[in-house]
């Protein structure tokens, strides 16, 4: 019998309200060493035909990147950018990776190099292609980049007849050279990778459509699980437990599941995550890394740890 919904209070990690004055939050993510990474823009680029995010913009924008690690905060403002960035991750040598989710392949064979590396003085030090239709992106402690793709990146759009993202899940080194590609075929075909949790280069979890399976890549082998959760956009893992953010229209609810032999996942209970005022957190965005869940709400960053959640039972 399913338990009632349990309330769990989450730690307020940092309030970025002053830091983001005059800026709109674009992305928040957890870095490979637990960093909180923030990307914001002074003016959000308009969608093409109200539907499609541009890769490059006619008007230039200013971005602010913030990396918060162990109480130390580093930030850099990138002026006059024509690229429409969606993702931020830290890299080695005090560098940051900014990535646009989209990339065009043009008739002349040229393409948008949608990954850009900057130093903390705002100087661009590298640019390369990571493919169109990026859904999630994480950098590992080995300085490799894991990317997952949504349907347009897998099946092709924006001129890509042979899409970079057709594998659904890929890994690259810090210069954009291929390190891994998922063998995307039936019966475990990824047509849209909804969520990604990169613990290390040896262990990567992903959750995908059409069948809404959960998969674990571990040292070259892949195991598959049926979570009986549809439409989740993020999950965290600790030992035998997986916590999913609720599916379609239920993003304020969280579903705790436990693994059993035979790759079975059993639903244990539902959770509501509470802020410092004991109100349910309505997260505009989340990021998942191992057992850590970053929730952004009203420019406040909250960190939930599945280890603590499980120990409370």
Structural description of this entry:
The protein has 313 residues and is mainly beta. It has one domain (6-311): Neuraminidase, CATH 2.120.10.30. It has two helices and 25 strands. It has helices at 151-155, 306-311, and strands at 6-9, 11-15, 24-30, 36-41, 56-69, 72-83, 87-91, 95-99, 115-119, 124-128, 134-139, 145-149, 169-172, 178-181, 192-198, 203-209, 213-218, 221-225, 235-238, 241-245, 254-260, 264-274, 285-289, 292-297, 300-305. A hairpin with a 3-residue loop joins strand 21 (254-260) and strand 22.
Outline type: globular
The CATH topology:
Neuraminidase
Quickly give the CATH architecture. 6 Propeller
Average pLDDT confidence is 94
* Sheet with most strands: strand arrangement: 1-22-21-20-19
Largest sheet report = 5 strands, mixed
Number of strands: 25
CA radius of gyration is 19 Å
Strand content: over 45%
Order of helices and strands: EEEEEEEEEEEEHEEEEEEEEEEEEEH
Give the tally of structural domains.
Answer: 1
CATH superfamily: TolB, C-terminal domain
Subunit arrangement of the protein: single chain
Top-tier CATH class: Mainly Beta
Percent of residues in helices comes to under 10%
Structural class: mainly beta
Instruction: State the low-pLDDT regions, or none.
Output: none
Output the number of helix runs: 2
